[in-house]
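Lecture notes, structural biology module. Today: joint structure prediction for complexes of two components.
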Amino acid sequence: MSIADDNDNIFKALASRTRRQLLDFLKDRPQTTGMLCAAFPDLDRCTVMQHLKVLEEADLIIARREGRERWNHLNALPIKHIHDRWIGPYAAHAIGILDRLQADLG
Amino acid sequence: MSIADDNDNIFKALASRTRRQLLDFLKDRPQTTGMLCAAFPDLDRCTVMQHLKVLEEADLIIARREGRERWNHLNALPIKHIHDRWIGPYAAHAIGILDRLQADLG
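The predicted structure, tokenised, for the full assembly:
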């Protein structure tokens, strides 16, 4: 069992569509928990907080408290490490070309 | 629901530690199913083939038949797309610096 497999909690966290959507929402800027609840009206506050807890334990978000507000920041480092695990520096270049080619043809 | 969430099968495929280890094994070169079975002696052939099927359906491996052998190739494009979903071109640069800094300090 390799050390990299300590990342189980990261992949488990990403396996939920709702949690991926929460991360999408945090991509451009940090959001308070209240803002996230407002953006996901189908989820009650407790469910949003449970998802945020799973994401925080996986180190995919970093929370900072400011007064009564909790600001949730996307932490992209674990996502970079997923990329680097299977795509080395040389392959990254080749895959970038392939991806653009597919986009141009698609 | 965004189009990107059609990727459910990719994240489900990556949520299994064994499937991630199979992808690790394919990183450097394609392998036949027989080679993979030999590399994972704790798994029976049927289990290996089930995992390969999940990975193939998620487009994380591409299989090519040559005579009686099936060669399994890692397809890194979906992994690049995970990266690109949450890490834009500008952020990629900043995160690269942060990652090296953490590695140097660690």
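Point to remember: The domain at 3-76 of chain A is CATH 1.10.10.10 (Arc Repressor Mutant, subunit A).
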